[in-house]
Amino acid sequence: MPKITYIEHNGTEHVVEADAGMTVMETAVKNQIPGIEAECGGACSCATCHVYVEEAWKEATGEPEEMEEDMLDFAFDVRPTSRLSCQIKITGALDGLVVRVPEKQF
Questions:
Q1: 73 φ/ψ angles, rounded to the nearest 5 degrees
Q2: Domain residue ranges of the chain, discontinuous segments joined by +
Q3: For residue range 59-104, what is the model confidence (pLDDT) as tens digits?
Q4: What is the CATH superfamily name and number for domain 3-100?
Q5: Rounded to 10 degrees, what is the CA torsion of 37, 39, 43, 49?
Q6: Would you state the pLDDT for residue 106?
């Protein structure tokens, strides 16, 4: 099972095992990661699952598609590594992925 590290704004780390095929957002909700609100449940219709992908993982997670880019316009403190975690599908290639949770979601 791939492991994902979520780092809260205050530096607290949560390392969790993820099921391949789930999203980074679904895994966060399943493991009660603070700061991932996921109000739309993964429909890419809000920006409450915003995360910062660590630079080393940016290529592996890919670039946001147009719909995700549009939703990121509503996110707090968007950065070049910003992604909506509902749009990052977990595969074995993402074992060790590190994402940071913003100070707030909106």
A1: -60, -25
A2: 3-100
A3: 999 999 999 999 999 999 999 999 999 999 999 999 999 999 999 9
A4: Beta-grasp domain (3.10.20.30)
A5: -20
A6: 74
